[in-house]
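Please fill in the sequence for the structure shown.

STRUCTURE ENCODING:
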């Protein structure tokens, strides 16, 4: 790369890239009317969608947290890229050739995100090639013993890291990657005697983000002389954060979005076994427990806002599995979807289950799921001696909040009776315990379990993220403070002005130049909206086109630009193109008509104040009144 990217390329690329397709890699979007899409915001937790995208204008806006911008802004904020890196990422996506201006200097690429991703891609290719070499016989044996053939390895990009200390390092150096870049990518480790390959003598799984880019690796040891852990992952890097990634989600995301079901398993081979058995929505954490960031990621991909989805966890029946189940349950209410647990017979994980009983058994495992709260109750009761009064009372006291926590209140009576049966107490005692737990939960404003406080799922709808300088790009300006749509008054007059400007910004061609010209001459009472009207008026002679919104933005003060973005992405209350045209013209006509009535009222007042000896003035006012009335009638005849 040599110098600054040519501005014409920046603008052309922006027009070529469909912002909905890009955002769709991170968020499941649904139709929100003509030309508008919506989904759960990727920048904050919310229980119902307030994140809107308008592909025709190329902008997004969240009415919950206020994040907004174009496709470059989205990529910058989601992946913590610089402006230049976001352009290069999108250009690579559609194979668009960028041109760089000469003489503006060569940016330092050492260790930046794009170089780390490129190093990971080259390393993944190296590992895949190594799996076919004679030295990888142990790796192929490992995969074969677990029922994974060559086709399976290719599908998941499985590779092999040679036992040599510097083979990957030397390979990547020959491709132009420095040791510093490889260290920052987590491909090398630093020792007393220098740097060496982090992964040696292991089967390698590439860990990819939702867009399919390789951001890290997981490695399983094969040899007895390997003193490292059984599984070794990429350390935290500028592109790999284990709390924010799920293995297999790049392959599963389409089916997760379509079926609104996700299966959370415990390892790489379990993901592979599940997918090969037809459970193509399986994902796994990468060397860490399932947490809040994973829930956010799943909810965005699933479109988790209706309560119709399913999240199925598979846990081992041992103590570690039970502990993992309790951790997952502690965060369960962050989902709108129903949560379940699937435990295989004899404690087999999906990989072993497929090997011993076939692929149908893996599919049957998912069908044999039980509600998570039922599973948790049974796990809790195992800790008490139910043959004693004290044990039954203690068990009831601990398990009652779980029943109280059930979101579907229609299920509570049945599970209250089940709790009474399992603990051996009278139904009336169980009912009192559950009722008290419900009251305690409401008084605290949250649900509780033995694991501690449980948060209401998805968090408050209006929670705004706290900006972090560490996450901000060096060339990304801070979001300017200024007026916002949700801060406007909600009176009929302001709503009419807002809706008319929305129509002018979003569908200028449907309104036409004649009506648009009249609209921008009409009075706007809200001062903020009047500023926007003036910017529209400054560009009305070149109505519409691909740069319409950008031209309006360029004629506004910096702190007003978010307001225009919000007006550009807010959904109109129409479902098809014909209704949209009728609505847009209608609301603009209403604004013009309101202004005509106002002007008519002013003229009538002037006429009443005109003395009888001012005949010429009186006739001029009457002529203007006639023109206004003719204009008003013609509007309604269109």
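FILLED IN BY: designer on duty
SEQUENCE:
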């Amino acid at each position: 790369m040599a110098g600054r990217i040519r501005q014409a390329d920046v603008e052309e690329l922006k027009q070529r890239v469909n912002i909905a397709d890009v955002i769709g890699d991170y968020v499941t979007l649904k139709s929100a009317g003509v030309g508008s899409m919506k989904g759960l915001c990727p920048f904050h937790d919310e229980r119902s969608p307030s994140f809107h995208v308008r592909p025709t204008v190329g902008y997004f806006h969240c009415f919950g947290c206020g994040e907004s911008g174009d496709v470059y802004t989205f990529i910058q904020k989601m992946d913590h890229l610089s402006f230049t890196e976001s352009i290069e990422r999108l250009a690579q996506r559609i194979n668009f050739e960028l041109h760089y201006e000469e003489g503006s200097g060569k940016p330092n690429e050492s260790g930046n995100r794009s170089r780390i991703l490129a190093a990971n891609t080259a390393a993944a290719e190296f590992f895949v090639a190594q799996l076919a070499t004679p030295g990888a016989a142990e790796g192929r044996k490992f995969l074969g013993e677990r029922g994974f053939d060559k086709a399976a390895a290719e599908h998941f990009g499985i590779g092999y890291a040679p036992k040599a200390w510097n083979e990957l390092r030397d390979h990547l150096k020959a491709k132009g990657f420095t040791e510093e870049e490889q260290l920052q990518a987590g491909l090398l480790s630093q020792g007393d005697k220098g740097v060496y390959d982090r992964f040696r003598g292991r089967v390698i799984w590439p860990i990819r983000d939702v867009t399919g880019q390789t951001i890290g690796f997981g490695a399983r040891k094969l040899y007895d002389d390997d003193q490292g852990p059984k599984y070794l992952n990429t350390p935290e890097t500028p592109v790999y954060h284990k709390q924010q990634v799920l293995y297999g989600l790049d392959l599963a995301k389409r089916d997760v979005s379509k079926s609104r079901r996700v299966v959370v398993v415990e390892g790489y081979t379990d993901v592979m076994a599940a997918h090969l058995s037809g459970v193509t929505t399986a994902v796994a954490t990468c060397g860490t427990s399932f947490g809040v960031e994973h829930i956010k990621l799943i909810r965005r991909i699933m479109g988790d806002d209706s309560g119709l989805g399913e999240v199925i966890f598979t846990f081992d029946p041992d103590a570690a599995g039970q502990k993992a189940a309790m951790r997952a349950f502690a965060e369960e209410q962050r989902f709108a979807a129903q949560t379940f647990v699937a435990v295989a017979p004899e404690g087999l994980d999906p990989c072993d289950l497929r090997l011993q009983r076939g692929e149908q058994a893996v599919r049957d495992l998912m069908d044999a799921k039980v509600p998570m709260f039922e599973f948790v109750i049974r796990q809790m009761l195992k800790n008490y001696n139910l043959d004693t009064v004290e044990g039954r009372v203690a068990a009831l006291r601990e398990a009652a909040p779980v029943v109280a926590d059930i979101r579907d209140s229609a299920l509570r009576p049945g599970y209250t009776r089940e709790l009474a049966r399992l603990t051996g107490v009278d139904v009336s005692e169980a009912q009192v315990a559950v009722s008290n737990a419900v009251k305690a939960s409401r008084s605290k404003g949250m649900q509780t379990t033995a694991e501690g406080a449980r948060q209401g799922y998805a968090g408050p709808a209006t929670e705004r993220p706290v900006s972090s300088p560490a996450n901000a790009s060096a060339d990304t300006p801070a979001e300017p403070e200024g007026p916002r749509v949700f801060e406007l008054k909600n009176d009929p007059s302001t709503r009419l002005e807002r809706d008319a400007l929305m129509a002018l910004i979003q569908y200028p061609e449907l309104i036409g130049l004649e009506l648009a010209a009249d609209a921008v001459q009409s009075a706007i009472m809200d001062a903020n909206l009047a500023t926007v009207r003036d910017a529209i008026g400054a560009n009305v002679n070149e109505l519409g086109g691909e740069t319409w919104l950008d031209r309006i933005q360029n004629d506004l003060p910096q702190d007003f630009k978010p307001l225009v973005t919000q007006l550009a992405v807010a959904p109109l209350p129409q479902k098809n193109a014909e209704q949209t045209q009728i609505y847009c013209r209608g609301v603009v006509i209403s604004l013009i008509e309101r202004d005509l009535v106002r002007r008519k009222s002013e003229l009538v007042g002037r006429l009443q104040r005109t003395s009888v000896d001012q005949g010429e003035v009186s006739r001029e006012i009457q002529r203007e009144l006639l023109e206004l009335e003719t204009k008003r009638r013609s509007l309604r005849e269109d």
